[in-house]
From TrEMBL:
Presence of the UniProt keyword Zinc-finger in the record: no
Domain of life per record: Eukaryota
A family per Pfam: Amidase
Protein name: Putative amidase
Keyword Acetylation: no
Length: 522
């Protein structure tokens, strides 16, 4: 589904639309398909590509592929105007005869997860009709920072409605407004959630880069399932102001891109202290390195690193799968590139950590959501709903719109019965803190690790409940074409180390390939 859809102009060259080819640059053919931010900036600098052409190309691809993939909810009707402004700024810069002071994201289109507020003609609804027509007071802070970096806000990416917290029956990638999102590699494959649209869209080259959110697995899992790179930052490294919330303890905003370097360029643009998210961003600001994160894009970044491999229980879902042999090969690569591998480590109380009812995660999140969604709705300048009770009532009164009969809203109903951040929630939070200290932190510190290494996305809860960062990188494909990734997790503020490790791994393996939907469709 596309709201505010824009047709590509007749003047757009057919070769641009069909193949994404622009011209020959410095003796090599340039294609928008799979182009990195650096490739795009070189094409801009050489005068072979404009932001307007790039936006036109992506809009055309969205209109061609999105009816199948459903990764995009809205195209920004102002995207072309923003691109033309970026082109003028680039021309003015060139005419001044000075070296370019424009950043890496200047003129580059970005898709924003639809739960992240944009103060423009687009909606922010968390995928639900309950918030359709609501108006935000201002851009989310991460959007403000992307605009300041010169990025073009291309549109809004789809998501699992309300992050999946409405009901456990809602399929990954489904929302009322957009329908069921589809994995571009395997039509029947799980696109995962909740940042499914952000991952699908960059994987299918419907946009250059995207931004997602994670409370537990919502960046790491869709990136893993759609063969792209996802960075889940330390909680507080990026502001949550203006983002539909679940939990201030666990919510974080991060990039989903095709390469580690592209993800780092986005991360550099969106991190930093924000008075609107004071406590978390002030605490995390000390982790941000002077000069930003791109300095850690080091091909030799594995040298001297100590990596701890946790197999149990994360390899269970890949039993008798080609992914396990690929994982073993990747471990050999990590060793060859200079890392020390400490294998077969165990996380204490892992079974409890992974059970949201035993760990206390479910109790805390359902209570926190009721409190925090009310605060978010209160800040809207216009909204048809002002509380969780209002949302529940809307859904009940519009069962066909929200597919209540099929998917229900059981967890909303449970959340509504909670009474704020009471003793039960405080106990749950304290238990998660102890599980993290005795589990992941103990593992990292006792083994003097730079990162934990796992196959797939299954360790996301270990990292989520403690607010720890992670990066997932494409690691291969199953026999049916379904992607899988390798995940590197670290202690709070470990992004520099994780970037070095992830970038060096990516450059050594270069596993990612474009999805078949780009070539022949399904």
């Amino acid at each position: 589904m596309i709201v505010n859809g824009i047709k590509s102009p007749p003047s757009l060259p057919l070769i641009l639309v069909l193949l994404g080819l622009i011209s020959t640059i410095n003796g090599s053919e340039f294609s928008i398909i799979e182009a990195t931010v650096a490739d795009i900036q070189r094409a801009f600098a050489d005068g072979r590509l404009t932001s307007r052409q790039l936006v036109d190309f992506y809009i055309d691809r969205i209109e061609s592929l999105n009816p199948l993939l459903r990764g995009v909810l809205e195209i920004n009707p102002d995207a072309r105007d923003q691109a033309e402004i970026a082109d003028r700024e680039r021309r003015d810069e060139a005419n001044c005869g000075r070296g370019s002071s424009l950043g890496e994201l200047h003129g580059v289109p970005v898709l924003i997860k639809e739960s992240i507020a944009t103060k423009d003609k687009m909606n922010t609804t968390a995928g639900s009709y309950a918030l359709l027509g609501s108006e935000v007071a201002r851009d989310a802070t991460v959007v403000e920072r992307l605009r300041s970096a010169g990025a073009v806000i291309l549109g809004k990416a789809s998501l699992t409605e309300w992050y999946g917290i409405r009901s456990p029956l809602i399929p990954n990638g489904w929302c009322a407004r957009g329908g069921q999102a589809v994995n571009p590699y395997v039509e029947s494959g799980d696109p995962c959630g909740s940042s499914s649209g952000s991952a699908i869209s960059v994987a299918a080259n419907m946009v250059a880069v995207s931004v997602g959110t994670e409370t537990d697995a919502s960046i790491i899992c869709p990136a893993n399932h759609n063969s792209v790179v996802g960075i889940k930052p330390t909680v507080g490294l990026t502001s949550r102001a203006g983002v539909v919330p679940i939990s201030p303890r666990q919510d974080t905003i991060g990039p989903i891109c095709r390469t580690v370097s592209d993800a780092v360029h986005v991360l550099d643009a969106i991190v930093g202290y924000d008075p609107r998210d004071h406590e978390a961003t002030k605490s995390a600001a000390k982790f941000i390195p002077g000069g930003g994160y791109k300095q850690f894009l080091n091909k030799d970044g594995l040298k001297g690193k100590r990596l701890g491999v946790v197999r149990n229980p994360f390899l269970d879902s890949y039993n008798k799968s080609s992914a396990i042999s690929s994982f073993e090969h990747h471990l050999d690569t990590l060793r060859q590139k200079g890392a020390t591998i400490i294998d077969k480590l165990e996380i204490e109380n892992i079974d409890i950590i992974l059970d949201p009812y035993q760990s206390g995660e479910a109790v805390a999140l359902l209570s926190e959501f009721k409190v925090n969604i009310k605060e978010y709705l209160k800040e809207l300048t216009k909204s048809p709903v002002r509380s969780l009770a209002d949302i529940i009532a809307f859904n009940s009164n519009n069962p066909d719109l929200e597919m209540i009969k099929e998917y229900g809203q059981d967890e909303f109903l449970i959340s509504e019965t909670t009474s704020g951040i009471g003793e039960d929630v405080l106990k749950a939070v304290e238990l998660m803190k102890k599980l993290s200290e005795d589990g992941f932190e103990k593992l990292m510190k006792e083994n003097e690790l730079d990162a934990m290494v796992t196959l797939g996305w299954g360790a996301s809860t270990v990292l989520a409940i403690g607010g720890y960062p992670a990066i997932t990188v494409p690691a291969g494909y199953e026999s049916d074409g379904m992607p899988f990734g390798i995940c590197f997790g670290g202690l709070k503020g470990a992004e520099p180390k994780l970037i070095e490790i992830a970038f060096a791994f990516e450059q050594s393996t270069k596993v990612r390939r474009a999805p078949p939907v780009l070539k022949v469709g399904y």
